[in-house]
Automatic annotation (TrEMBL):
PROSITE patterns: HTH_ARAC_FAMILY_2
Organism: Streptomyces swartbergensis
Keyword Phosphoprotein: no
Name listed for the protein in its UniProt record: AraC family transcriptional regulator
The entry's keywords: DNA-binding, Transcription, Transcription regulation
Domain HTH araC/xylS-type residue range list: 170-271
Any GO MF annotation of the entry: DNA-binding transcription factor activity
């Protein structure tokens, strides 16, 4: 499996976030990498509140959090399914998050009783999904001062969970990776046919193992690419990018971007240039 990416794909105003928090990614233990993409750790100590915004990936996240990072503040854990819209998290004071991002399609082996779509658009206390989690479990992850100990605690917890190999999860992971990497994937029917699946079978696989439809995944990765271009380039040809991403025209890209991110792409790009 590939090492954790170092880009900021999906983060709205990454410079604003990274100037306020310490953000790191780490690889999980080798046996976990089949289904866990990476760990992400954030610490902050802010003089003023800040709202971070993320255009989410089609992935489930397990997080252990400590708001306040003080002995009197009880840490807690959550399972967050795929967020359908812009995900906003308000940060204030001091705090810490230690998260595990599962590969799109990789959460189902850890909770095989229900389809991953059950968690879509929802954030639940971790004990509702993994009843074996205790307060000591959460504290073992978030209280260590150094990254190595936090990563070791995440490894220990995830390795303790039952996780039977799931060929359907492997298939879902591969299909999502192909959609992400190949801009020519634009129509669900064509993609299903190329992979030797019916549209119905592909949709059912994505519902049970990814949590969202294949069409949603295709559209989401388009927005991730547009967001990345808008945030890193000053010479974006929006009409050309719209065509490259498979939109019918520039207006459709602008509408999709604005609906998801909250501002038109040109306005976002202008703001990003000011922030550099």
């Amino acid at each position: 499996m590939e090492a954790p990416r170092r880009d900021t794909r999906g983060i709205v105003d990454p410079s604003g976030l990274l100037n306020r928090v310490r953000f790191r990614r780490h690889e999980p233990a080798e046996p976990l990498r089949r289904y866990v993409e990476w760990y992400w750790l954030i610490d902050w100590d802010l003089p003023a509140p800040y709202a971070s915004h993320i255009v989410p990936h089609p992935a489930v996240n397990l997080t252990f959090q400590w708001d306040g990072a003080d002995e009197k503040d009880a840490p807690y854990g959550e399972v967050t399914g795929v967020a359908l819209g812009l995900y906003t998290r308000k940060l204030s004071g001091r705090g810490r998050v230690c998260g595990a991002k599962f590969r799109p399609g990789g959460f189902r082996p850890y909770a095989p009783e229900v389809p991953v779509s059950r968690w879509t658009g929802r954030t639940l206390p971790v004990q509702e999904v993994f009843p074996q989690v205790t307060g000591d479990t959460v504290r073992s992850v978030v209280t260590p001062a150094d990254d190595r100990a936090r990563v070791a605690a995440l490894d220990a917890f995830l390795l303790s969970l039952p996780c039977a190999p799931d060929p359907q999860a492997d298939l879902a992971i591969d299909l999502v990776r192909r959609i992400q990497a190949d801009r020519t994937v634009r129509r669900v029917g064509d993609f299903a046919h190329a992979r030797g699946l019916s549209v119905r079978a592909l949709q059912r696989l994505f519902s049970t193992h990814v949590g969202v439809s294949p069409k949603w995944v295709i559209l989401r990765y388009r927005i991730h690419e547009a967001l990345e271009q808008a945030g890193t380039r000053s010479d974006v040809d929006w009409a050309a990018l719209a065509a490259d991403l498979g939109y019918a025209d520039q207006a459709h890209l602008v509408w999709d971007f604005t609906t998801t991110v909250g501002v038109p792409p040109a306005a976002y790009a202008a703001g990003a240039r000011v922030g550099r």
